[in-house]
Amino acid sequence: MHGRDGHDLPGGQAVAQRSRVVMSDLVLYRRLLRQARPHWILFVGLLVLGLLGSLIALLNPVPLKIVVDSVLGTRPLPAFLAPLLPEAVARSPAAILFGAIGMLLVVSALGQLQGLGGTLLRTYLGERLVLGFRARLVNQVQRLSLSYHDSRGTADSIYRIQQDAQAIQSLLVDGAMPALSAAITLSTMIAVTARLDSHLALVALCICPPLAFLSRAYRPRVRKQARQVKKLESSALAVVQETLGALRVVKAFGQEARETERFMHRASEGMTARLRLALLQGRYGALLGLTTALGTAVVLLIGVGHVRSGVLSLGQLLMVMGYLGQLYQPLKTISQKAGSFQTYLTGVERAFALLDEPCDVPERPHARPIERARGAVAFRDVSFAYDAAHTVLHDISFEAPPGARVAIAGATGAGKTTLVSLLTRFYDPTAGAILLDGVDLRDYRLAELRDQFAIVLQEPVLFSTSIAENIAYGRPGASEQEIAEAARAAGAHDFITRLPHGYATPVGERGMQLSGGERQRVALARAFLKNAPLLILDEPTSSVDVKTEAAILEAMDRLMRGRTAFLITHRATALSTCGAATPGAGPLGGGHAVARGPGSMSRSSAPPVLVGKLTWHAAVIAWRELAPDAPDPERIEVLRRGKKSTVYRLVGVGPDATAIIAQRSCMAKAGIERTVYEKILPHLPVTAPRYYGARQESPEFAWLFLEDVGDERYAATEPAERAIAGRWVALMHAAAARVATARRLPDGGPRRYLTHLQASRRTLAAHVANPALTAEEAATIHRIVADLDRLAGGWARLERACAGVPATLVHGDLQRKNTYLRRSPDGPQLFAVDWETAGWGVPAADLTRIDLPTYWSVVRPAWRDVELEDVQRLAAVGRVFLQLAAIHWVSPELAYDSPLYPPTRRGRGRAGSSPVSELRAALLRSVIDTVDPDASELCRALENALLDSGALGSPVAITRIKSRVYRLSAGSNGQARSFVLKGFDPWLARRNELVARRWLPALGLSDRCARLLATAADPHGDSTWHVYEDLGDGAVDPTRPDPQSVMAVVCLIAELHTKAAGHPLVPECRHYCGDLGAPFFAANVRDALAVVEALAPPRVQPTPEQSALRDRLLVRLRGLRDEGPERARMLRESGQPDTLLHGDLWTTNALVTATGDRLTARLIDWDHAAVGPPSYDLSTFLYRFPRRERPAILAAYRGAVAGATWSLPPDAELAVLFETAEYARYANRVIWPAAAVIQESAAWGWEQLAEVERWFEALEPALPD
Predict the structure, then answer these.
(1) Domain total for the chain?
(2) Of 279, 393, 838, 1029, which has fewest CB within 10 angstroms of its CB?
């Protein structure tokens, strides 16, 4: 989805540049006092301890005065002490001395106790203050909108929470309290000093104005520099956080040094700023020290004069100088704190600035509570912009009823994620309103609103805790049983229980201990457990393979049931799980499409949906004639619109509120189908949709109402499903042969298709002169007419091929679109629909997409004279019949008045599709029918390849090379061309396509593989076909190797390894294809060991011989497991780079052709391409040759890579690495047969395991001694 100039941003509304808020000291002190108010008792206690410290400080000089005046001198004891001592003691100098020493010890002890109590109380108070302040900051950063964090980054918030918040302790505890104590001490010292000598006290206080001036001058400069230091430290922290968060990318691209340099640059700037701050504070401290030293010197000078004049005694002067030191210390403390306070105030200012950030999504006063929403969502003219210049969504309007599934598709940057972010109020619309159950989202309490949603993101977010805690994140109080049930529903329980600690297994930071698919299933389990009424799925299958995607889609389908679900995806497989999709004009709401500007929403392949008040709909009106009490439909899904029929799904109107299928057909079609559903299928032992009845709408059209059998289509590529179809078709044919009503259906045997042939031949011949046809197209039609004539001439042979098989009910069009599977406790059940082409005759057309041995085994008891060869021959005839039907279907489009050929059109380019193209495809399908029963896309790809070659229309022949690999030859008269057709699973096709079209061209090796001419995906996602240029049969012969051919291949392998080593695309190759280095060895040995250990009772009941085989394999695999660390070390230290590997370098995949006077080598079949050390490819290649040939081949490779920055290790080490690669492959070959024995009790599995054991025993060192 998108608006004008839309953008998908990772989070909230873009934040305008905020000006830095500078708070005055007074404002900050007020806020600090408010923050500290809850702890006032602790502050009072700390203040009392400070006052005690001041009193103790006053007593410190007293013992010294007593010794000087009363022990060494003759002056009496101080007046406050004389009454406290006996007269004898007061007159004894020795007693006075010991008393002074005792007093000194007591005062020191009291000082230490006061210091210890102050330290403990200060620490406790400081930690409490920091903890409370940080809690406020953490709560605030979670409340702030995503836009704030997108613009500022998380590192700045982390720094403010962890570092700046600490300043509150430095200010209030380590700063303000000592400063207050110093002020009290200062007042006391001034009073005592003035009592001893007022002139000296006045002189001592003369330094106060200079100290105040220095403090005022330096304070703003220190504050400014402190801000700069904080900013640079936060910036350096951001670099570290960003690097660690993207460490895999950093390592993959080898940018560690660059990131270190980037950090050092930021950190160096911070260091320079801190040095400047230290220099500034040092100058300030030096000036303070000089000022107090000057004051001390003046007091000393005047004091000596007073002693000489008799105004003061020497002891009193010493006491004054002692007090002067303690007098200046508080002054220095107050002045220094005024400077250091600026650093702390800067941190507090930044922390309070974070607390002052406004929330972009505020909660309204008196917001409404919500317990559990029904799930009705409506967008009403919603617009949204991140800023004034970028409108992302523009006037979006649609409605989704409770339980609807809404798919949102669109180009990157279209605003899909933004739309669902508005739903959860991560942002608010800039215009319009979003309603939940008829209430504006902004009127709900924010926390309760968000509690209505469960979200599964594209990159699942897991926390560094156990799997159980991650699943229970949305419901912290969930029981273990509830967690396990949620995991089962998400398809996660099995893999979790296989982990060492089960549900208690830690997932690591961001869940990186799990694979992508496992993380996604844990996220789905979390959504299951939360059980929210609304669900948001944001690209949940974008980064997983096809097998994992299938498991996730199955879990998603269960999760979406009964919930209003919004799915963001580009994948058709994921879109198929939704019952609603946003069409090109806009979302469907209120029973009609709301068009809102160009491309405001985009359409998926899921069926359009009508919602709202739908009693006006013709399908509902007709259904109400059959079921007057039926409820209003929840929605109507448009499943198909055709020339002859339209099919709807009416949701919630059938028995028990189920869905029904309403089919509007022309009367001829409706009459045949009604007969089949009403009078034939009920008498057959096959599953069939329940028939509810029919209603005539007009003389031309009628409605049929059937049970909804679901959306799962039958896949003829799956052997198990072909067997199910074979049994179903056999039961239908055998039983229908005895149903009299079936005999009254139209002819469905050879005569029907002869009629098709004759009609098509007449149509083509009549319109071959259409002026819109090019000369090439006209010639093609002439050849088709000639082929049809030859087929008509041999028609009797086709009819003889049909002899011997009884006539019966024929469906006539058992294609995938007309066959469905429904899962049940008793197993999958097949349902056939759309019986328009049903007839009576030899059932050839029904046999083309089923398992024929299964079919024959079922019909044989009823048709005893029919052999399997008869069934196979009949299926071949059926393929011809279906292609004749296809030609008959498309040939009328060649008429002069066809809309495909307007009178003004001449000489069409090949970009447009035409009936001729369809005819070509029909003929090609008849030729390659053995390749793929559902090959429409492949035919189009072949058509493109043949057009490029100029061979279209020429004789075509096809031969099978191996499973799913064919050679197609076309052309004559010197223009013959041949191609190789290869079928893949979709994930494997993607790998081969990346090799041919991206990775090898990036290495400058695009001509060193077979050129990929075209691709064709099965429309149902089951398989993908590639059309390659045919490189011939020039494979290297390892038994009689030609030195020049071997050298050409070795040079190509070396060039591949050298050019790919260190290339930026290597991480991408690893992402798509995996790693064939040490991880490959370890994983295969581990998995093989696990599955072989499972080949034991009660799961498997092996024979004694099989048990012995299992034990021998376990011994070998355990030995490999124990050797794993050493082999991994040798791989790491071998000096080999990670490079692109072919992965399957058998000589059959290395082709050499002569190009002029030189040989050119090419590599084919890149199914096992991956990343790893070159020794892996070399091992495969060398082991194909006799042992005596290998040293020369290895020497040639060493020579070919001599100019690279890396080299192979010595032969002795290399031999171990070759052995490691072979053992890894052998261990891999253990896994699948062992799994087949466990899951299917497959006898062949034990045979294959025995074969793998022989491989282990026969493995010899790759190189001679």
Answers:
(1) 6
(2) 279
